[in-house]
């Protein structure tokens, strides 16, 4: 019997210390070949786009989700995403971390002579098309606010920005990091579930036992990612699945920066054996408590989506068996930490 022909595997490095680049930036691949994206330091994605809109996720395209790698992880193992080439059509890819695409962090498979034009188009796009953590406007109408920033008794600048009525006002030029604990033994919670944060603050989600995500949504659709429901092309943040063993002593984190005073809504998109979001595992920052869109209303709306047969459970799949039907991304984390991306019938690695 003739041996089974196997495709070649092409290795691509994503990011690294001070690097906003895929290396190599493009390659030619045959049908059946695989492309292994290895993520290095910082926090990047491998997200399919189109030649026409380089910095916007393609509907139905693959997306690794955000893959954070600590600065002190210099020896690995490093997380990786494997993509299987199904035809010879060009495949266009970008990093959807805010502004990385606009700085030229794009990649292509079988681009022909069009890669330079693809990258140039990406660098010419507005940064607003792929901001990773800019939340959507709420139902309230923003008003213009003027703020004077002062440090050490010296006036530095006066600025205007859109602020939502009843939301937090800036109080200091010094930013604060807000720690939010995600999950834990028998817990389907974000703790604290509702915070107030200033412009420039950061929110660090620390993932505890089981397997959870911190995924941006909207008040209107609490249990669906913002990327799926936005009608204006907004791409919300998504930590990806973060499996943590019951006996773990170190815990992964995912950090987002607060860019304005609009409410930020988030949920856990784990759905095995039941939807964590529909069990009330949601989070909010800067929810306007004087409006109808309070945190309590957001959580109640999430719980109302549960079917009558749904039962509360803290169970979660084993770290090597995580699946997300919502995004088409299967996450397998072990010693090599590989994320296999499946979309439109593409072969899983």
From TrEMBL:
It comes from the Eukaryota. This is Phytocyanin domain-containing protein. It comes from Steccherinum ochraceum. The lineage of its organism: Eukaryota, Fungi, Dikarya, Basidiomycota, Agaricomycotina.
